[in-house]
Amino acid sequence: ITEDSWQVIGEAIKSKDSVGILVDGEEDLLAIVAVLLAPENSFVVYGQPGEGIVVIKVNEDSKRKMHEILSRMEYKPEKLK
User: Fold this and answer.
1) How many CB atoms lie within 10 A of CB 38?
2) Which of 6, 71, 15 is nearest to 35 (CA)?
């Protein structure tokens, strides 16, 4: 997960316009960033190849789960240290 990813997703979430982020390649970890940065009661939606779409309701529980996932990874963004 790059610092640019955090910045782009953060800017998209803050935008007053509808925004889509197209990722060229496989970057399923960006859903973690989106959930952590999105306001509660919003939804993170992304495609799951061969399955359809995944919808995550952003709330305290989903944010906690994403923090847990990041805590098990080597990558620790400054925001979560």
Assistant:
1) 20
2) 6
Burial of 34 (0-12, 13-18, 19+ CB in 10 A): buried
Q: How far is CA 43 from the centre of its chain?
A: 10
What distance in Å separates the CA atoms of residue 70 and residue 36, rounded to the nearest whole number?
10
Banded pLDDT at 76 (limits 50, 70, 90): low
Tokens of 40: 């509660």
Q: Using an 8 Å Cβ cutoff, are 66 and 36 in contact?
A: yes
Q: What one-letter code names the amino acid at 49?
A: P
Give the 3-state secondary structure of residue 58.
Answer: coil
45: β partners: 55
Q: Structural domain boundaries of the chain?
A: 3-80
